[in-house]
Inverse folding.
């Protein structure tokens, strides 16, 4: 189970402050305080905690907590959201005129009608009026690369010009764009130098605004495979491009590569089983890994309880991965009958990443020479064929999880994927289900996100208009709350 809150930078771990739910409720001054560690404690507690050893801190804290328990109920920080329309469980019918009580970053209760804090016994609760709006769970993008959205030649130059520090600042900007677009959770499927792992932890600690992040760290690849960083650069430069991070050959090497990702904090393992469209090499898009190598990666990931996401275009790679029992196929461009059958049998998710085509179109329109020859041929092929697999997967009953591959397409434009999903065989109900309930299941976070129910994180968004009749309204999200904290409130009254 991946941890959502990697709290090693926080001075006091929340778990240690949490003997009962009642105490926690009294401790937190505001939903956003959840992320702020020490700063979230009442001033008297903060002062008295200074310069004490951990056992002493705990003893003192328990005493103070006992005192705080005697405080009136008004000390409880809570928010009430009044929703005109509420799609609390995507896939089921929306509800009308519902009030959600949020305490301590989590949904505490849903009740019919427009109620205020007093009706919930919490007269000081903050009231957020979304009676004119359509409220639904925060969206989840199962496939992003927050470190940038340059492509082709531009990206090749950035790879050698930018330091990990440069990349980290860019990733922080992209995280902000992503959550502003209504995506409150993302799964990052490949970066280098631990940039996204650090961003994940900084967001969880409240230092940077962004979506919850699950990261694969660096994609595992065989040499000359999709994740080999040396492809396309002249040989003298290879020594400066670190392949040891993720490139493996043979069973032992591939086991080691997974363990390296685990050691550096990966929540999920990503492997490239076939060639890649953006790899700067002309070796096709079929399988480029032997079965024993793929199996070694998957088995090692399982040893550590990690899920496996597989980059695959060619049908041979898709089927090999599904036979070996992976959790998701990313792209899945050439999906044949065997692949369809294996998807349904195994229950793996298909993550279509149709938005890539938007990125290719935009770059080629701006600069016809944006891609070098080897890559350009693959891109033109992908533009032509993308969407066909989804058209086959939907009627076959394959489980679909929303994922854009943002980074190839623009960050903050994640919701453009909905339109493409509908163009290629889905409807608004199933597309929103893919971006909430299904994506939460793929990420292993169904108990925390994906629907708006008591006990789950208060991750919710609001739009002006009905996304079940016009899914494009999701491109203009006007309210975003993550873990009870309002990230943007422009649509609220
Ligand atoms: Zn990707």
């Amino acid at each position: 189970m991946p941890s959502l809150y990697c709290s090693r930078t926080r001075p006091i771990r929340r778990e240690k402050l949490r003997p009962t739910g009642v105490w926690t409720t009294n401790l937190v001054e505001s939903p956003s305080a959840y992320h702020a560690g020490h700063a979230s404690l009442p001033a008297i507690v903060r002062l008295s905690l200074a310069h004490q050893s951990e056992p002493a801190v705990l003893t003192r804290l328990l005493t103070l907590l006992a005192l705080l328990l005697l405080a009136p109920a008004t000390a409880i920080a809570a928010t009430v959201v009044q929703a005109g329309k509420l799609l609390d469980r995507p896939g089921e019918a929306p509800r009308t005129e519902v009030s959600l009580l949020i305490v301590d970053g989590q949904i505490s209760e849903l009740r019919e009608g427009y109620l205020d804090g007093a009706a919930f016994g919490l007269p000081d609760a903050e009231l957020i009026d979304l009676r004119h709006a359509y409220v639904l769970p925060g969206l989840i993008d199962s496939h992003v690369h927050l470190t940038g959205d340059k492509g082709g030649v531009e990206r090749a130059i950035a790879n050698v010009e930018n330091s990990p520090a440069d990349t980290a600042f860019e990733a922080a900007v992209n995280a902000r764009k992503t959550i502003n677009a209504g995506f409150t959770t993302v799964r990052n499927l490949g970066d280098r130098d631990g940039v996204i792992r650090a961003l994940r932890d900084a967001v969880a600690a409240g230092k940077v605004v962004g979506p919850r992040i699950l990261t694969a760290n660096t994609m595992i690849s065989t040499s000359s495979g999709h994740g080999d960083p040396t492809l396309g650069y002249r040989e003298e430069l290879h020594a400066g491009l670190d392949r040891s991070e993720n490139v493996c050959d043979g069973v032992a090497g591939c086991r080691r590569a997974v363990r390296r990702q685990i050691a550096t904090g990966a929540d999920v393992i990503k492997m490239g089983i076939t060639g890649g469209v953006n790899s700067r090499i002309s070796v096709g898009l079929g399988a480029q890994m032997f079965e024993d190598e793929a199996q070694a990666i998957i088995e090692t990931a399982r040893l550590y309880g990690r899920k496996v996401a597989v980059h695959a275009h060619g049908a041979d790679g898709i089927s090999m991965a599904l036979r070996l029992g992976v959790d998701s196929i990313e792209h899945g461009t050439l999906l044949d009958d065997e692949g369809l059958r294996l998807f349904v049998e195994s229950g793996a998710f298909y993550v279509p990443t149709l938005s890539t085509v938007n990125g290719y179109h935009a770059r080629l329109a701006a600069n016809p020479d944006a891609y070098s020859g080897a890559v350009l041929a693959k891109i033109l092929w992908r533009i032509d064929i993308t969407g066909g697999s989804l058209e086959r997967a939907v009627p076959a009953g394959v489980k679909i999880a929303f994922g854009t591959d943002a980074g190839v397409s623009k960050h903050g434009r994640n919701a453009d994927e909905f339109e493409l999903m509908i163009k290629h065989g889905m409807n608004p109900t199933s597309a929103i289900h893919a971006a909430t309930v299904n994506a939460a299941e793929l990420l292993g976070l169904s108990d925390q996100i994906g629907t708006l129910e008591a006990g789950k994180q208060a991750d919710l968004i609001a739009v002006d208009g009905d996304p079940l009749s016009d899914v494009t309204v999701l491109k203009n999200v006007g309210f975003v709350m993550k873990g009870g904290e309002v990230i943007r409130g422009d649509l609220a009254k």
The chain has 16 helices and 17 strands.
